Structure formats: C-alpha cells, structure tokens
Backbone:
C-alpha cells in the first residue's frame, strides 16, 4: 500500500468534514498549500485552540470557554423560558434572529433508533431536572421538522407532561416569500394546523 503524499493526506482529512466532498476538499487543500504560511499556521492554531478550550455549558450544554455560556450567564435573559434545540448550530441560527430572549437547552442530537441513539444518549434527563429545579414556566421545542426531530419533540413533551411547564412546538409551514402552489401536502397541513389569530 502506497503512502499518501502530504496533499493527498490533507484532501482526505478535509473530505471527512461534513458537507465537504472530494472536489471541495481538493480545492481547499490546494488553497491552503498556496496561501501565505502565517495564514495556514493561524488556521491550525485556531483549530487546536478551539479543541483545547471549548467545553459544554454546565446548564444548557452549548459550547463555551467558561462554566456557563454567555447566554446562561446573562441576567437579562428570561430564565423562565427555555428553547430546546438539537445542536449549537441551531441555537446560533435562532440567536441571529434576535427575537428570542429566553435561554436554551441543547440536546446534541435527536432520538434515532436506526443509528442506535436513544433518549439516554441525549441531554433529555438534564432538561427534565432543570425544569423542575429552576421552575421554568415555558418550554419551546425547536427540533427540526424531520421524522426523528418530531419523534424527539413528542418524547420530550410526554416527559414534561407533569412538570408544570407549558410546552410548545415551533410552528412549521410555508416559508415566507414562497408559493403555496409549490408546497407539499405535509408542509401545507403543518401551516394550517399551526395557524394563529391575526391581531
């Protein structure tokens, strides 16, 4: 078996990243080989630094450098409202809207029996404990509208049935600016079921 040369090794490493195919990995590898050396070293240092310093927030399980992330540590956030998301990336997406003023709980995945992921592999038990201990009044489940995301949402709602908190599911339906004529039946049904009063 012939050993890979450095560029082939770099391409193989980059191709393991999510969403990066062999062509993109090759393009990135060639860019990194040709960019100024200090840029390449800065990228390498940033990756190592993130791996060494980033940990989970002890309360919501978002990524942080401290015991509590900046959102959990912010006294201006509403601690009685928690939005449950699948990943830190989903949290960042919601934060970019600047419309949610509560706090979060990151599950780090969804229930997926085919992949061997059950409730015990997620941060669901910590969510249930947190709601009880912190007297949280409102839980918004913002898992993705996939089969596994919906199953996870239903499981969490069932676990929180007697918690005293009101549990909501984010609305799902026709995206803003799209044409109803092109929407599929499931999307339209979710849009109708998630209707709200106009005021």
Residues:
């Amino acid at each position: 078996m012939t050993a890979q040369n450095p560029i082939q090794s770099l391409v193989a490493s980059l191709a393991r990243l999510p969403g990066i195919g062999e062509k993109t990995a090759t393009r990135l590898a060639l860019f990194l080989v040709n960019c100024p050396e200090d840029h390449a070293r800065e990228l390498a240092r940033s990756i190592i630094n993130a791996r060494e310093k980033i940990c989970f927030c002890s309360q919501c399980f978002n990524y942080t450098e401290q015991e509590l992330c900046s959102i959990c540590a912010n006294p201006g956030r509403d601690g009685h409202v928690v939005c449950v998301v699948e990943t830190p990336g989903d949290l960042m997406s919601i934060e970019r809207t600047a419309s949610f003023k509560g706090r979060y709980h990151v599950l780090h995945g969804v229930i997926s029996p085919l992949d061997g992921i059950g409730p015990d592999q997620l941060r669901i038990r910590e969510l249930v404990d947190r709601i009880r201990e912190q007297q949280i009044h409102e839980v918004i489940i913002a898992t993705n509208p996939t089969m596994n995301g919906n199953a996870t949402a239903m499981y969490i709602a069932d676990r929180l049935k007697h918690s005293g908190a009101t549990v909501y599911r984010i609305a799902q339906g026709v995206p803003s600016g799209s044409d109803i004529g092109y929407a599929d039946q499931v999307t339209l049904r979710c849009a109708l079921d998630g209707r709200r009063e106009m005021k």
Remarks:
- The CA atoms of residues 10 and 29 lie 6 Å apart.
- The mean pLDDT is 90.
- The domain at 1-37 is CATH 1.10.8.420 (Helicase, Ruva Protein; domain 3).
- The chain has seven helices and six strands.
